[in-house]
Amino acid sequence: MSDERFFKREGPFTVEVLAQKIGAELKPPERAGQIVRDIADLEQAGKDDVAVFCNVRHAGAFAKSHAGVIVTSRKLGEFPHNGSALLLSNDPRLAFAELGRIFYPAGAPKSFVHPRATIAATASIGAEVAIAAGVVIGEHVVIGARSRIGANTVIEDHVSIGSDAVIGPNCSISHALIGAAVNISSNVSIGGEGFGFVPGPQGPVRLSHVGLVIIGNRVEIGSNCAIDRGGLGNTVIGDMTALDNLVQIGHNVRIGKGCVFAGQAGVAGSAIIGDYVMVGGAVSISDHVTVGDGAKIAGKSGVMRDVAAGETVAGYPAMPIRQWHRQTTALAKLAKKSD
Amino acid sequence: MSDERFFKREGPFTVEVLAQKIGAELKPPERAGQIVRDIADLEQAGKDDVAVFCNVRHAGAFAKSHAGVIVTSRKLGEFPHNGSALLLSNDPRLAFAELGRIFYPAGAPKSFVHPRATIAATASIGAEVAIAAGVVIGEHVVIGARSRIGANTVIEDHVSIGSDAVIGPNCSISHALIGAAVNISSNVSIGGEGFGFVPGPQGPVRLSHVGLVIIGNRVEIGSNCAIDRGGLGNTVIGDMTALDNLVQIGHNVRIGKGCVFAGQAGVAGSAIIGDYVMVGGAVSISDHVTVGDGAKIAGKSGVMRDVAAGETVAGYPAMPIRQWHRQTTALAKLAKKSD
Amino acid sequence: MSDERFFKREGPFTVEVLAQKIGAELKPPERAGQIVRDIADLEQAGKDDVAVFCNVRHAGAFAKSHAGVIVTSRKLGEFPHNGSALLLSNDPRLAFAELGRIFYPAGAPKSFVHPRATIAATASIGAEVAIAAGVVIGEHVVIGARSRIGANTVIEDHVSIGSDAVIGPNCSISHALIGAAVNISSNVSIGGEGFGFVPGPQGPVRLSHVGLVIIGNRVEIGSNCAIDRGGLGNTVIGDMTALDNLVQIGHNVRIGKGCVFAGQAGVAGSAIIGDYVMVGGAVSISDHVTVGDGAKIAGKSGVMRDVAAGETVAGYPAMPIRQWHRQTTALAKLAKKSD
């Protein structure tokens, strides 16, 4: 059960209402009036909770779960269980995500501009925004309606941010045009000069970086990420793409829509990433590499060449994942033989 | 010698006093009255300094050192040296750490609340705290006695921090219950939403994250770390555990006590780390993996499977370190042969 | 073309003027009066732009480019092209970097001290500085002439920063002596306690860190980097060295001049890096390792042993790059055979 000081929970709801909201079939139907108070983990859930069972590996936990209600698929719902009511859904994972938003809606935060925020006279601030203490907003900045800017965040001259954005504290944003409904966590740096250097007689000489960072709608950016602006041309992050914490995006990188980058991944300058690419944690993608739509890159890989659309790669250097597994196995055998 | 502008040094002390404070035996005893003014490196130390010799690899430096006093073990004290007085200790490394605190005690900083800190009326602020300029403290926050909060740090609603904490500047802390005597460096993010997504028809959909970050007593967290809160249930870091800089801790990770994570290590969601685990720099630990008590993970490893208690692993994928060395050797031979 | 809201462009210039400024030979000379308005990418450039052609791999783009003027070498200038005027230079890359500064000079920013900056009475602030809102400057800090400090950056007691520095927002700087003309991006942490621990009976015990961070002139530090101060002795970064984003520099590391560290690279405590070393992205260098002058370390490598001056290494563990390629090839063959 969540800590009520930190999280405001809606409800309770009857199972019937939840079934309707997420478009699921209740089994057995006579449990329609049962009360549900919270979402919970399959193993921790009690009689007032709804949990999810969406992976056959958890069949044991499903069999023993004390959850009052469990969301699952028609197929997984055939496994033995402990008397929970079932909500049968075509996509139980997504249905459970929706239940999360039903019990914990984003809420309509209070609108305010803190007197200790420093906002340039030329900035354009939308309706119903929330701008916390210590925020610094530069000349000609545009902040869309209902956006929230966390304390001590700095938004430099001419940056534009769409409506319904949530930006956490201590972020530093410059040289960027940012879409609507983005979610940017804390201590994020956006718009820094790219790391393009030319060797000079006394050391590296930085190239001029006169491009921007262009961020689409509904993009998610985790804590302590760093996203550089382009040199000539822009750095681009497409709609619905999500970055975890401590991710590095180099200058002139172009990322498509719906991609997912896990923690500490990094993309070097001018790489091109397609749509719906999945990038594991601590992956490194070299400069000027192209990764096709729907590709998957296993955690910790070092991608040094192009990856075709739909391909799954792993390793350092990265290669098709089956090949990597073969190499891993062959090397283990070789070492054993040579003992 | 340390820069007196930055560091306030206590002393001088006689060797006798130091021997007593750290429980060491002085050899020869007639050097009891010798004066010591500072701690120093074995190679840089002069006649007024105390240094440490705790590794046989430095026997050459020990032989030539001009340190007035050297802390060492009875065994290492048999090596030839240059006339330094010796302080013989069962654990010279720990004894030298204690000497550091004798010459450079943490001190009792001035207590103050800067007029440019913004503190919610409902926050509970302990006695003798130091709260710097630009700090923003939300509703119902609890700050324990004698804690120090660095400039421009943001502590969101309901967060609780124990007594004697030292928190650096520009940190962003939300959704967290934090113990006593923690040491959190600068630009640290704690309590961000975890990176749990479900694929949706238009892109990734984030799961609700309604858990907290629970941090024990005497935990150390380096600069620019990011620690996410739990989804269902909490992210937990046990007493005395230390994280170096730029470490990533994912949602629902559980870390035991007394662990050490070197710089840029990362732990993905729901991994479980036992007590006294040593994690090298740039190590990546995959989600849902379990690492047993006292395990050691060599720098740069990619841990993709469980690691047993007490085991030492290395490599990508990580394997027992002897096996990794065998594989590394076998591969080198193979490449030579195939030339 | 750059966004005029964000970037102030000088010019236009005639080709003749540009040729003179960068010391290039114009071919054909009769194009001297041609007007140039901006720098651009070879593929995007139009008739008013100057682009660069400095790598034979882009000969196709050179042949088709619509750029009015192209900077190149005498040799590359022999390739077929589309009627652009050519500026022939001994070092076209460096010449193009100079053109960037001609069109986009750093400018002389307005000098000011924002009333919402908090500056200790004992701090010494040079002439013509720019100190933004929310900046906090401690006792006895020295800021050189014409330096700019970004909003909400915190500079702790006794830190000294040379003239003409540009420091971005939300940085946290302590225990540091910093040279002139440095460029430090946003959310950077400098001067944190090093991660030197001794195992104690109840967990790790931190060693006293009474050294400083010493940063030379014209050093560049990217966003969200973390640089720890020394334990006994200092952490040192030499003149003209450049760090990309999210780079970790451990305590007592000594880095020479003119080095380049790409994103997410990390150097563990007490490593010694020579002059003009090139370190790829996500490289990890172990503690106490020495890397010689002019060495090159390929991206994602794990350097566990010393690297000789001038050597190029790759792999994990890192080895001479030719050996790494041989091993990679040999392993691929072995896996194929064993199918």
Per DSSP E runs of 2 or more residues, the count of β-strands of chain A stands at: 40
Described by strand count, sense and barrel closure, the largest sheet of chain A is: 12 strands, mixed
Task: Provide the residue-averaged pLDDT of chain A.
Answer: 96
Classification by helices and strands of chain A: alpha/beta
Largest interface: A-B, 63 and 63 residues
Strands of the biggest beta sheet of chain A: in what spatial order?
A: 8-11-14-17-20-25-28-31-34-37-39-40
Query: What is the quaternary state of this protein?
Result: homotrimer
Could you say what the CATH architecture of the largest domain in chain A is?
3 Solenoid
Please name the fourth-level CATH homologous superfamily of the largest domain in chain A.
Hexapeptide repeat proteins
Shape of chain A: flat
Radius of gyration of chain A: 24 Å
Helix content of chain A: 10-25%
**Terminal Cα span of chain A:** 54 Å
Topology-level CATH name of the largest domain in chain A:
UDP N-Acetylglucosamine Acyltransferase, domain 1
Number of helical elements of chain A? 4
SSE topology sketch:
The structure is a homotrimer of 339-residue chains.
Chain A lengths: L12 E2 H8 L2 E3 L7 E2 L1 E2 L9 E5 L5 H6 L4 E4 L12 E4 L3 H12 L8 E2 L4 E2 L4 E2 L4 E2 L4 E2 L4 E2 L4 E2 L4 E2 L4 E2 L4 E2 L4 E2 L2 E3 L4 E2 L4 E4 L4 E4 L2 E4 L6 E3 L4 E2 L4 E3 L6 E3 L4 E2 L4 E2 L4 E2 L4 E2 L4 E2 L4 E2 L4 E2 L4 E2 L4 E2 L4 E2 L4 E2 L8 E3 L4 E2 H17 L2
Parallel strand pairs in A: 4-5, 5-6, 6-7, 8-11, 9-12, 10-13, 11-14, 12-15, 13-16, 14-17, 15-18, 16-19, 17-20, 18-21, 19-24, 20-25, 21-26, 24-27, 25-28, 26-29, 27-30, 28-31, 29-32, 30-33, 31-34, 32-35, 33-36, 34-37, 35-38, 37-39
Antiparallel strand pairs in A: 1-3, 2-7, 22-23, 39-40
